[in-house]
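Changelog note: in this version the structure field was regenerated for every chain. One regenerated record is shown below for reference.
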Amino acid sequence: MAPNEAQRVQIDLLDIAWRLADEHPELPAGTVLRCFARAVRTARACGVALGDLTVVAERIARTHLDSRVADRPLPLAG
């Protein structure tokens, strides 16, 4: 992959990380970012090509984040 393509992937990964943090205000930002970092590492460990990394890592992270949000108890009214 050419340096410009690698830089583009890196920029896209950062954009996705910020978007995920914004979309999940109910979770601490650090939790969301760590989840996304793990998703990127998992995708790379599975041999995902850099060109597909952003899509695959985002899908993995969203799956994990959605399950975390679904598992959280609702706040008590009061």
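Spot check on this record: The helical segments are 3-23, 29-45, 50-71. The chain has three helices and no strands.
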